[in-house]
Amino acid sequence: MKIPTEQSFRSALHHPRVAVVIGRWLGVAVAVCFLTGLFSHLQQTTPGWLVIPSRPASLYRVTQGPHVLTGLVAVPLLLAKLWTVYPKLFAKPPWPPSRQALGTVLERLSILVLVAALALELFIGFVNTIQWYPWPFPFRQTHYALAWIIVGAMLVHVAVKLPLIAANWRRTPEPLPAATTGMTRRTLFRTVAGAGALVGITSAGQSVRALGPVAVLAPRKPGIGPQGLPVNRTAQDAGVTAIGADWRFTVDGPQPLSYTIDELRGLPQNRSDLPIACVEGWSQGARWEGVRIRDLLRLCGAPEGSRVRVVSMEQGGFYATSELPPEFADDPLTLLALRLNGSELALDHGYPARIIAPNRPGVLQTKWVHRLEVLS
Ligand SMILES: Nc1nc2c(c(=O)[nH]1)N[C@H]1C(S)=C(S)[C@@H](COP(=O)(O)O)O[C@H]1N2
Ligand SMILES: [Mo]
């Protein structure tokens, strides 16, 4: 059998113009995914110099939904992009060694890094959204490190290909259909765009109620769960079972406070309409009622601008504690919620008490809260 060379693939669908068009779409998806991911990462690991505002209340929701959406849509775009350029795999090897050959080797290595990192990133991201996590490495840190590798490798890739990109940026006359597939360039573009749109439409229903019925790619759907709200981790999974009659909620502050559930209900109650916006892409608004964290801080004599550590009854686990930076602790919408959508919290939603705050990832909306610690 004769080994093909790059020139064996004559189809116009392997033309650089196709790579440029699909590459632009993929570039936009990756850019949106990167920036929204950066925001999510900074929310969860906020450096000391950075102040994240607690408003707009739905900001996290409208960034994390598109984060997961663009990640999913990038999968068919990446596959299409790889398909248009795969004849390059049969390009002449850079041999004998020369300066030019060295450049070619480095360029190909950078593409290998880009493709491998992006494929792995999209894969572990997807697997995370379906809550299957078989790897020994921590997800978020790995996902974050890979993101920077991808951005770096992508910048190198674009810089190297700049002349080719510039030459094919504008539309050129449509060549004849490919002899083997009979597909025109335009049909290919429509097919790829259609595949991207299909992935988007069948997953967006995890946050957009109207698309719920077609959300076959969405692991969780609006309205499905106790009190009409999905649950990410049940009380049983978190090892939280019986809440004894001796249950108490405490605040470790200048003047320590301790309340029974009835005493908490006796404090001034407030209402917040806020979404749970999970890092896994699903989100849903709900009506919460409970005690303002800001009121509890005043009651315990905490100084202005205090930071608060939130402690769950859950033992161990990544989400058993969280911290409210001053902007979030002081926001009048931030509650120690006791009620959800008009009735007492279900155990799976954090009974007897949970945190709900504006503009925050779901992972920081700690459930089964029994203690607040005022940090200096
Ligand atoms: N203690 C504790 N709180 C937690 C979690 C958890 O595992 N343990 N999961 C978080 C995640 S990932 C999300 S998205 C929200 C979901 O809240 P819900 O189950 O009430 O919808 O709770 C958060 N609070
Ligand atoms: Mo979540």
Question: In a nutshell, what does this entry contain?
Answer:
It contains eight helices and ten strands. It is an alpha+beta fold and 376 residues long. Bound molecules: the ligand Nc1nc2c(c(=O)[nH]1)N[C@H]1C(S)=C(S)[C@@H](COP(=O)(O)O)O[C@H]1N2 and molybdenum atom (MO).
Describe the structure in your own words:
The N and C termini lie far apart (74 Å). The mean pLDDT is 95. The protein is of the alpha+beta class and 376 residues long. A hairpin with a 4-residue loop joins strand 1 and strand 2 (257-259). The chain has eight helices and ten strands. The strands form two sheets. The chain has a five-stranded mixed sheet with strand order 2-1-10-5-6. Strands 3, 4, 7, 8 and 9 form a five-stranded antiparallel sheet that branches. Residues 232, 278-280, 362-363 line the site of molybdenum atom.
User: Which H/E pattern describes the elements?
Assistant: HHHHHEEHEEHEEHEEEE
Order of neighbouring strands in the sheet with most strands: 2-1-10-5-6
- DSSP summary, beta strand count: 10
CATH architecture of the largest domain: Up-down Bundle
Q: What is the distance, rounded to the nearest whole angstrom, between the alpha carbons of the first and last residues?
A: 74 Å
Strand content: 5-15%
- Average pLDDT, to the nearest integer? 95
Write down the Rg.
26 Å
